[in-house]
Amino acid sequence: KELDLLLFKEKTESSGLTYTNQLITRFVASLTTKPFVLLGGLSGSGKTKLAQSFAQWICADESQYKIIPVGADWTNREPLLGYVDALEDTKYVLPENGALQLLIEANKVENEDKPYFLILDEMNLSHVERYFADFLSVMESKEKFQLHNGKGITKSDVPHELSWPPNLFVVGTVNIDETTYMFSPKVLDRANTIEFRI
Length: 198
Known about the structure:
The chain is of the alpha/beta class. Helices cover 33% and strands 20% of the residues.
């Protein structure tokens, strides 16, 4: 199905957002060539709004996208992929932000024709390589996310492994200042990057 990006531009303008045709085309082309896009630029330049507006425009409802603010204390995969409860081995603790639930929904056969967007706001407030390592590895290897060791069983409705489905897109926004961390070549190699200039 073809996208009419002029309709999207009209929608953003009616909401008080102004983006050039070139920026919108670059954003959509970046999403279709790689499922991981980084939007960099000054704070307040409209990076998160672009990702949010596009997700709202193309998705049937709000269950197909999540905007998740990255915390400076994110040091492992738990904020995105959860963890097995150490006291109760049959229980899997899902992150409250809905990231894992989005991944699970995107993997369902009945949802394979629906796009899903994971929008990570201020992605470099913490070291990306620490909390996003599983995503970077799966992007490169095409293997699966290993969530727990109960092969063939489900814990708290979480299967033991999940794929990165072709209908899942990750958009990260990036501010460059003294409170943030720079990206390693490993991260940049796996992403399409767009710089916002005002």
